[in-house]
Write a structure and sequence with these properties.
With 365 residues, this protein is α/β, with parallel strands linked by helices. It has a single domain, classed as Alpha-Beta Barrel (TIM Barrel), CATH 3.20.20. It contains 11 helices and 14 strands.
Length: 365
Amino acid sequence: MYTDIGFQPFTLGEIKLSNRVVMASMSRARTDNPGLIPTELQAEYYRQRASAGLIVTEGTWPSREAIGAINVPGLFTEEQAEGWKRVTDAVHEAGGRIFVQLGHCGAVSHPDLLGGALPLAPSAVSVNQPVFTPSGFKTSPVPAAMTLSDIERTIGDYARSVRLARDAGFDGVELHGTVGFLIPQFLNDITNLREDRYGGSIENRTRFALEVIEAMASEWTASRIGLKLSPAATMGDLRPTPQTLPTYEYLVARISEVKVAYVQFQHIPADLTGTPVEVLNEGTVQYFRNFYDGTIIANGGLNKNSAEALVRSGVADLVAFGAPYLSNPDLVERYKAGVALAPVPPRDTWYSGGASGYADYPRAT
């Protein structure tokens, strides 16, 4: 793959990528300022990794209500857009392409992050998930069930954030629909107990995600919008149910009609035997390729050989790497030259510190 298929240009919607390698979204918690504005250090971090065919940024808040951790950037103010402009300029000057990932934590938050307000979620159901607050980890409380007005405002927040992303020079936007955040909370029948048009049936539980994507596309174009999903993921009390596969099958089939830029499927490299999603043991992208005819990005525990196999088989068009990019800013060059990867760094550098363990890893070539 890395000498022929992987290093051929790939057309993603309206965008030309130099190769099929994607740097996956990874929170690094370096936005340590009150305005949650990306810094020069973050611009350097992304610039170093611009040889990826596509970079997807760390998860980024589309509104103040979306916040679910400290030191994570936003994209809901003009000042934040200006900060991101430094990042996109740096990546483009280095020849790269970059999407911003927009994510709302929903129930996975805490009043300490929200000015004392309860987190908003589809229903008043706690996921009992540890949340990174200014005073340390605290368990997420029972959230407030979103009113129809809350839902309408949140959809509008995503749309506004897409407008700011265009102003900031991004090449596109990815909707965060993974693990246990707001999109999966609407999709899951444990956390979505609503009895209105956003709950109950599969069609209703997928309505919020589809309306968000429609609103995002209306501010740009569908070919600039991506979606990331992880049907087998768990977070706190949120877990797959017998409704999970049919729900995601329906959602993915509907997304296929919208003609977005891509769907990224995050495979959970765990033994799913005995769970309602046991069939995904054989591969998440392999399963959902049956429901989606557009561009697919494979994500989750990949290495050079497994990524090559997915592309050669045709079930994936692009392959995403997360942890290897922490200490290998030149991941593409290392794979291309057959150079060994630097080991994944200690976890205590992942979400804290400045340049150390973040932007100080040497290139091998």
